[in-house]
Hints:
Layout: H1 14-22, H2 48-56, E1 62-63, E2 71-77, E3 84-87, E4 91-95, H3 99-104, H4 112-119, E5 125-129, H5 130-136, H6 152-165, H7 172-186
Amino acid sequence: MxxxxxxxxxxxxxxxxxxxxxxxxFVALYDRSDWPHWSDxxxxxxxxxxxxxxxTSQARVGFKTDDECNVLTGSWHDPYSGEIVADSVALDLDxxxxxxxxxxxxxxxxxxxxxxxxxxxxxNLLLVQASLNRQKGAxxxxxxxxxxxxxxxEYLRHFNAVIYKYELTYITSEKRIVDRMLHACKS
Length: 187
């Protein structure tokens, strides 16, 4: 495409159209912009990320400017690594159940409002080191677990609580792996 190519006429939506005509299930392509996140629901100039930075800091926070919209410093415990982080720039607000993962496991059928609710739900959000959030990406627990071993069972329970809350489902191969991990957590 970048070198001057073009998509064939009439074929872009062919797989979707075929699935609809044949009554087959399919997942529409994921588009992050369909999942509005980091909203400012209470209108106080602090979006979801900054609200959680403020609420979860274990020390007094410092703000970027006098309007106190953007949290800059504080003290946060990253459950994935077990480390304490003082600079908010080093943290990402992780969706425990990633948006793209949710999309591929039932969320693609949700209304835009339910996608917004999911994307901003504190039950599905954790402040973690940016590098670990990016390492995780859109992976489920069958493909990625936190490097801090002592947190893995709690992470798995947290992940499952969110997918049950929103009625998302594992595919069979994922469920088999997750069930084995849950069994190991009980030991």
